[in-house]
Fold this protein.
Amino acid sequence: MTNEIETMNQESLPVLGQYINGQWGNGAGAEISTVSAADAQQILAVGRAATEEQVATAFGAAAAAQESWAQLPMAERGAYLLKAGQYLREHSEKFGEELAQEEGKTRAEGIGEVLRAAQIFTYYAGEAERCAGTVFQSPRAGEQILVSHKPLGVIGIITPFNFPMAIPAWKIAPALIFGNTVVFKPASLVPLLATRLVEALHAAGLPAGVLNLIVGPGALGNRFIEDARLSGLSFTGSTGVGRKLCAAGAARGIPVQAEMGGKNASVVLADADLELASEQVLFGAFRATGQKCTATSRLILDASIAELFLAKLTARLDAWVTGDPLDPAVHMGPLVDAKAANAARDSLGKALAEGAELIYEGAAPAQASFMAPNIILLPTGEAGSKNIAWREEFFAPVLSVMVVDGKEAAFAAAQDSEFGLSLALFTRDLGTAIEAQSRLDVGILHVNSESAGADPHVPFGGAKSSGYGPKEQGAAAREFYTHTTTVYLRG
Ligand code: UN1
C-alpha cells in the first residue's frame, strides 16, 4: 500500500481512541490498526495503543466516579442503559456490517449481535424494577433480617474477539446497573466494535469515569489485575489466560469470573428427529465459523443412525456457502485472521496424523483467513478419545465425529472432556432428556436445539474447566457484581 493511499484512507477511517474519564483521546503508545477479517489489506480503523500509564489513569477515573455512581437511584443508572440500547438499535445496520468486517461472521449474524447487545442493555435497565434483596424472619422479637446487595467497586472487564459486542455488553451492563464503575479492555483484534459499544454509552450521557475503554495489546490486561483499585475482574477467553487471572485474583483476594474454553458435544440418539438434528448441528458447528465457545465441536452419533445422519448433514453443507461475510448469499465468513486459520489448519493436520479420517471438506475462498467446513471421523474408544480433535478447542469450522452404541456409551463419550460448557442432546424420549439433565456435567444443556445461544435473562456459564466463579447474565450476574450486607434490623 502506498503512502498516498494510506493518507487518503486515514482521512476517512474511524479513529481508535481511548475513552478515559468521559473523554475520547489518543493512546500514547504504538500505532495500531484494525483490519478486515476477510482481507487483511483492508484497514477499518487506525489509532494508537494505550500505555500502562493510561491504564492507571483509567483506574483512577473509575475509582473517583464510583461512589457517586453507586448513589444514583438504580432507575437512573438504568436510564443510561436504555438510551444506549436505543442508540445501538438505531445503528444496528452500520455497526453490524462493521462487526462482520472486523470479526468475520456474516452480516446477518453481525446485525443480530448488535441487536442482542441492545437487548442486554434493556434487560439490565429493568433491574431497577426487580427485587433488590431478601428479608428473613428473625428468631428474636422486634427484629427483621435483611440482605442487601452493594457494588464491588471498580470492575475490570477483558473480552475476546468472537462476540465483540454481546460479551462486553453482558459484562458492562450488569457491572454498571449494580453501581460499579468499569475499565474495559477488548481483544486487540476487535477494537472498532468495542469503540462502537462505548460510543453508545457515551451518547447516552454516561457520567465521566463510570466506563473507561483501553485499546491496545493483550499485555495491557495484565496491568488490570495488578491495579490496587481493581475490586473484581470478569474475563472471557482462553483457559490458559483465564487460569492465570483467577490465580492472580485469588492471591490478591479479589473475585474473578472467568468464562473459558469449551469442547461441546452434540449427541444424536437413535430416536432423534434427524432432520431437525442435522439442521441444528450444522448451525452449532459452523455458524460464526465455529468461533463460539458454545460451538459444537464433538458430534456423538448412535451407530444405528450415523450413516443416515451424516448424509443429511453433508447434504446441508453442500448448500452452505463460505465467502465474503457481507454477501447476503453467504452462510459462513472467514476466521478472525490468517493466524487463527493457520492454527486451525495445523490442529486439523495433527488430528489426521493421530488417526482421524477426513470425511467431508467443503469449499472456501483461497484467502489465508478462510477455512472450509470440515468433518472428521475419530476412531471409537481410547484412540479417538486421545485425539487432539477430541481434547482441544480448535475454535474453527471442524466437527469431530465419534460413533457409539446406545445411550450409555453416548453419555460416557459426552462426559469424556475436561470442559463442560454446553451440550446439545437430540432425542424424542423425555425420560432420556431428564436423565441427561442430572447426569451430564455441563453449564448449559440444549434438548433438541443447537449447542450455542444464550438468552440475557438466564444464567450462562460452564461446568468443569469451562468456567470459574459465578455464572453470567440474568439474575446470576448479581452474584458476581455485588457483595451482600446482612442487616439485623430492630427499631
Ligand atoms: C452464544 O452462544 O451465543 O465466547 C454466546 C463465547 C461465549 C458466548 C457464546 N462466551 O463464545
Notes: The pocket of 2-aminohexanedioic acid is lined by residues 160, 162-163, 167, 236, 259, 292-294, 452-454 (CB under 6 Å). The CA atoms of residues 159 and 186 lie 5 Å apart.
